[in-house]
Write a structure and sequence with these properties.
The chain folds into 3 domains: 2-109; 116-175, Helix Hairpins; 181-328, Histidine kinase-like ATPase, C-terminal domain (Heat Shock Protein 90, 2-Layer Sandwich), CATH 3.30.565. The strands form 2 sheets. Strands 2-4-5-7-6 form a 5-stranded mixed beta sheet, with helices on one face. Strands 1-3 form a two-stranded antiparallel ribbon. The chain has 341 residues and is α+β, with helices and mostly antiparallel strands. It has 7 helices and 7 strands. The protein binds adenosine-5'-diphosphate (ADP). The site of adenosine-5'-diphosphate (ADP) has 20 residues, from helix 6 and helix 7. Residues 234-235, 238, 262, 264-267, 275, 280-282, 292-298, 321 line the site of adenosine-5'-diphosphate (ADP).
Length: 341
């Protein structure tokens, strides 16, 4: 409300400036014309007295009049030019203010969403773990039940751990992320990740295909793991049915092409670029059902960028999305073996 009032006041001030300046410009134009008419009348009188110029037509042909008229026209153009520059600058100013304001509003909304989601993400595993511990302490349970409750509490601590890791990673990426490069054989690396994810999400159908048997890439192991894990977890999270995730690796012209295809809910065209922004989540936090912080794809995009690569998202023709990553096999511009991450 305060923001809207401030915006309204600034628009009123700008509108007042525009009207006032236009009025002053018109006034200046009229005064300039009046001054010219007065000067030319005076000149005609003087010339009539000196050289006995008898008609207006003869006066209009004199060099003195033409000079005066030229000066008048120049001043008229000056008034017109300055007024246009001022109005143009003012319009640019309004546009910039408006753009800045909108950006600030969106950033504030995203921060609000982030706080809401992070509070929820932190509170719900803590509440579950607390409940498990209370149950174990208050009741005498069989070993079987303790195992069951224990493993669910363990899952929740894993969730908390993942969340904190993601937060730390996002903070690091923003300040000083430098990939620690090592040679990684991508086929084995991705197969390992798929196995781990299959264990974690037994219902999901995760497949991996590769056009090569052996592809060595220079990359940051932790960073590349984060890319694959985030994309697979998102594919599962944003699926309404059994998630089918197909990972494809291709190597061509000293580059790798990695596709993560899912059969999920898909991503609307206008959101495709924005989902890689920090804290950005599609929809509204108050009505959204899925958990998240809007950091996953930001982290993925930043790690891909740090590996001199590109990421984009397309529609899967059969429904869902395809996240496409392109990365060079070797990192030309990154200092090798720098341990800053
Ligand atoms: P989070 O999952 O924590 O919300 P992300 O940065 O990982 O944050 O994703 C940003 C948004 O992009 C998500 O909120 C979701 O709306 C959308 N999204 C990401 N991955 C997928 C996917 N595979 N299918 C559909 N929507 C997705």
């Amino acid at each position: 409300m305060k923001n809207i009032r401030l915006r309204l006041i600034s628009y009123l001030v700008i509108a007042y400036m525009l009207v006032a300046f236009s009025w002053w410009s018109v006034l200046l134009y009229i005064k300039n014309k009046d001054a010219f008419n007065a000067k030319s009348e005076y000149l005609q009188l003087v010339m009539a007295a000196e050289r006995s110029i008898d008609s207006r037509a003869t006066f209009l042909e004199t060099a003195e009049y033409k000079d005066l008229h030229k000066k008048y026209k120049r001043q008229e153009w000056m008034i017109f030019g300055e007024a246009s520059v001022f109005i143009f600058s003012l319009i640019i100013g309004i546009y910039m203010i408006n753009r800045g304001y909108n950006k600030e509003m969106i950033a504030a909304q995203q921060r609000r969403n982030f706080l809401l989601s992070i509070t929820h993400e932190l509170k719900s595993p803590i509440a579950s773990i607390r409940l498990v511990l209370e149950t174990i302490l208050k009741r005498s349970l069989k070993e079987e039940q303790i195992n069951h409750f224990g493993s669910s509490a363990l899952k929740e601590t894993d969730r908390l751990n993942d969340l904190v890791n993601n937060l730390l990673l996002a903070a690091k990426i923003e300040t000083a992320y430098q990939p620690v490069l090592e040679e990684i054989e991508l086929n084995a690396f991705l197969k390992d990740i798929c196995d781990t994810m299959r264990e974690k999400f037994p219902k999901a159908q995760i497949s991996f295909q590769s056009s090569t048997d052996y592809t060595i890439i220079e990359g940051d192991q932790m960073g590349l793991t984060s890319i694959a894990v985030n994309l697979i977890e998102n594919a599962i999270k944003y699926s309404t049915e059994v998630a089918i995730i197909d990972i494809q690796l291709r190597e061509k012209n000293k580059k790798i092409f990695l596709n993560f295809t899912d059969n999920g809910i898909g991503i609307p065209e206008q959101e495709k670029k924005r989902i890689f922004e920090q804290f950005y989540r599609i929809g509204n936090e108050d009505t959204r059902k899925t958990k998240g912080t809007g950091l996953g794809l930001y982290i993925v995009a930043q790690i891909v960028k740090a590996h001199e690569g590109k990421i984009e998202v397309r529609d899967n023709p059969t429904g869902g999305s395809v996240f496409k990553i392109e990365m060079p096999l070797q990192q030309a511009n990154i200092q090798k073996n720098v341990q800053t991450f």
